[in-house]
Fold Gluconolaconase.
Amino acid sequence: MTTTGSPSVQRDSPSRHWSATPPEVATGWRLDRLTAPSRLFGANGLRTGPDGRVYVAQVTGSQISALDVSTGAVETISAKGGDIVAPDDVAFDSRGNLVATEVMDGRVSLRDTSGTTRVLRDDVPSANGITFHRDRLFIGECREGGRLMEFDLAGGPPRVLLEDVPSPNAMEVGPDGLLYFPVMGANEIWRIDPFADDARPQTVASGLGVPDSVKFDADGFIVSTQVASGQVLRIDPRTGDQTLLAQLSPGLDNCTLVDGRLFVSNFTGEITEILGGGDTRTTLPGGLNWPLDLAVGGDGRVYVADGTYFYAVEPDGSLQTVGMLFSPGYPGFLRGLVPSGPGEFVVTTSGGQIARYRPGSGETDYLADGFDQLYGVAVRGDDVVAVEQGTGRVLSVNRAGTVGVLASGLSEPVGVVVTAAGDLLVGETGRVVRVTASGTETVVDGLVRPHGLLVVAGTLYVVDAGQKAVIAVDLETGGRTTIAAGLPIGAPPGVDPKPLRGMPPFSGPQGPFAGIAAGPDGTLYVSADGEGSVLTLRRT
């Protein structure tokens, strides 16, 4: 993507975002991509379909896609904004019907071969692992105290096979007719007889790297991904002996086999083929799930909050993982982000925490907790200021951890910024307001959904996710200029995304936050969460 005032733009790689019109950029500005767009909204459950394609569940995008591993072609099967919300795993019955677990809504839905979707059950908290065996459907709840169940496809109550399991995940029936499943909380793989009246679990393998999937190869061996260590293991179900097939990056989620070829997924959206001798081949590159807030650190690098990952962007546009959900000291699902010192950031998490995070040493100091949908964060003097969208409040936290309320009654506030004069500006539905001792006053109106806010040399830059635009406002005169419009921000045109309610204990409610930051040379960095990239805007 490169454009300098002209609406003509060429896509330099495929993207998950679609639009009938390309971006438009004001005269005197140039728009480029800093990072490549993402093909998927991350990659979670994998299953080889009846047509030989790999079906990929994407929690954060509420999407299911089918990947042709021979050509790399990706087709959307269940789109963002559709009937299936936050799918985490999929399976097929003998008639080709697709069943998906909807982890955030606690549902299990069936999409038949005509494309019609219906909910089988909506009372399955953290519904995740799923498999069919001879058209008998098994489901697991990935939570502390989770259940393993067999569903009655005729609509009756499920048969509970096992209770109080510490976070079971993607499962499979082995050649011996037993149900095998990873137990993330125990760092083990277990099995039960799913057809017994009193199923008693047996430990198959332990001392793993936090297993989150189990499949079987043609020789009857377990293949399992390890989310924390990034290992792909082959395990003998008879002895528990382990063989390392490949060492990949942490964040692996699931695996599947296509004609004997093994493919694994990563939270980043990367699909990797595991070859012999420890070799691998990228089938589909990974990228950003969102991105959310952005910051330029004291080292001049661009940092990206991407929920389960925290990245630094290299000069070539590649993403260096600085921290992730399973790395030591990671504060949680990151959303708001602001530098607060050398190697330190103040962050907000979807779990309701405000924290100081030092990724280099893997340390987090939690300043305050228990909030409802935190978004933007800023530092004003010795205080941290954060937006609590769930209650419509703007909060302050001092060094002693005392929480104060600076403003309340705002409508879906997102971004916050402190001006050079110390004024506090907050974006809410339709406008940007200044927070004063007596309440709020309008600074900019006529907006739709302002997200990221940035002030540079008396100019307020607003990322309006509703208008898919970046707007510059002179804070002295009030004059405004749309410097870029039609950006791949937010959902594609005509799509109304369903709420992502969160996945405790891994995250609270997940929502978009199109951030903005500035480099020392005046370059603007913008979160293009629609396509999963970081954009740059520079003066020409």
